[in-house]
Amino acid sequence: MQYGLKIKLKRIEKGYTQKKLAQELSVTVSTIQNYEAEKREPKIETMKKLSKILGISVQDLFFSDEE
Fold first, then answer.
1. Residue 62 within a domain
2. How many domains, in total, are found in the chain?
């Protein structure tokens, strides 16, 4: 599974809207949309924050092809 889809599914599972997740990460909603569409890849610090919020390791969220 691609990281954009993982972000979207985990975000929904945790009850976050794109707006709420953007606020938690101090980024714009369009940035979250770009992550989910894989038009933009987060910086490592953002990856760490995102994985903590979503309850999944950076490795599993961004670098694992397993579902």
1. no
2. 1
The one-letter amino acid code at 62 reads F
Q: Which residues contact 1 (CB under 8 A, 6 or more apart)?
A: 65, 66, 67
What's the CA gap between 34 and 6, in Å, rounded? 13
Angle at 9 between CA 49 and CA 57, to 5 degrees: 35
Alpha-carbon gap, residue 28 to 26, rounded angstroms: 7
Model confidence pLDDT, tens digit, residues 8-37:
999 999 999 999 999 999 999 999 999 999
Q: Which residue has the tokens 């940035």?
A: 31
As to burial, measured by CB atoms within 10 angstroms (0-12 exposed, 13-18 middle, 19+ buried), residue 49 is: middle
Give the predicted TM-score (pTM) of the model.
Answer: 0.89
Could you tell me how far CA 10 lies from the centroid of its own chain? 8
